[in-house]
TrEMBL record:
Protein name: Xylitol-binding protein
Keyword Protein transport: no
Organism: Antarctobacter heliothermus
Keywords attached to this entry: Signal
Family under the similarity heading: Belongs to the bacterial solute-binding protein 2 family.
């Protein structure tokens, strides 16, 4: 009798951000290697926790073997996560998690440190002097506040840098463009932009170009579209919060849990600053990027 393949349900925050496309591709590629079936789901309204909750409720009726999820809100999905926990399903979170219901494993990177590092890189390019703007992510996301804190820590440590303006782009390109336009309506006296993810940075660049401004922009993710922007000079640098690698690692943790093996409660992936000089490893599309190896990340 043929053994039924394991079924993993993976729920991401949206279908608009290319970084989450990379995450879903990574999950599928790792699962396929192990002969597992993956159902990838996301809300049609980006980052809508109510839709995510409904997707999770529906998924639980299909009796999957494990749930992988990046919650759009730290609390709204708790009733559904409690249901998953009650029937003994492994819960693996990546990028973000519930504040109250600890997953069996959580995979991410240090959001505060990577934001501070990319900001310092911008300030170095500005020779330590200038007025900068910040475009923040979604306030409901676990990643947003620490990235803003990292930006602010870098500003506090740079006497010649002034925070001129800040806006919220909700991690979406169009909303970041609107936030940038509102910022430029108040002041065009800007020397650089700190942006909390690459997808928003594309919107920021769109709006700066529309306004006829050419100033350095830095962001976070190192997704393929950002690498193109490095090459055309519209993006100075990006910090490699690698959603695909994070999701691949979360998938490997899921498979280990299903095999009854131990996994760490938290896995923190290192990041590096990606510029046009060192971007070759990130130039490949998500289907062609090399897959991470568990032992290289966790050490066992």
């Amino acid at each position: 009798m043929t053994k039924k393949p394991r079924h993993i349900v993976c729920i991401t925050k949206n279908g608009t951000n290319p970084a989450y496309q990379g995450a879903r591709i990574g999950v599928r590629r790792i699962a396929e290697q192990a002969g597992c079936r993956v159902t990838s789901l996301w809300p049609q309204t980006p980052d809508d926790p109510e839709e995510q909750a409904a997707l999770l409720r529906a998924a639980l009726k299909e009796s999957p073997d494990a749930i992988m999820i990046a919650p759009a809100d730290p609390a709204r999905l708790d009733p559904e996560l409690e249901l998953a926990r009650a029937v003994g399903l492994p819960i693996i979170s990546f990028v973000s998690r519930s504040a109250a219901i600890a997953p069996d494993c959580f995979v991410t990177s240090d959001n505060r440190a990577l934001a501070e590092g990319i900001a310092v890189h911008l300030f170095s390019a500005l020779n330590g002097r200038g007025r900068v703007g910040i475009i923040e992510g979604n306030p409901a996301s676990e990643t947003s506040a620490p990235r803003t804190e990292g930006f602010m820590a870098a500003i506090d440590g740079a006497p010649g840098i002034t925070l001129a303006a800040r806006g919220v782009g909700y991690y979406q390109r169009d909303q970041a463009a609107m936030a940038t336009k509102a910022m430029l309506d108040k002041t065009r006296d800007l020397d650089g932009m700190l942006v909390a993810n690459d997808f928003m940075a594309l919107g920021v660049i769109d709006e700066l170009r529309q306004a006829g401004l050419s100033i350095p922009v830095v962001s976070v993710n190192a997704m393929p579209q950002a690498i193109e922007s490095l090459h055309n000079g519209s993006l100075l640098a990006t910090s490699a919060f690698d959603a695909m690698k994070i999701a691949c690692t979360a998938t490997m943790a899921t498979l280990r849990l299903l095999d009854g093996r131990d996994v760490p409660e938290n896995i923190m992936l290192p990041v590096e600053i990606v510029t046009v000089r060192n971007c070759a490893p990130w130039e490949r599309g998500y289907e062609d990027r090399p897959l991470p190896v568990w032992e290289d990340i966790v050490g066992r």
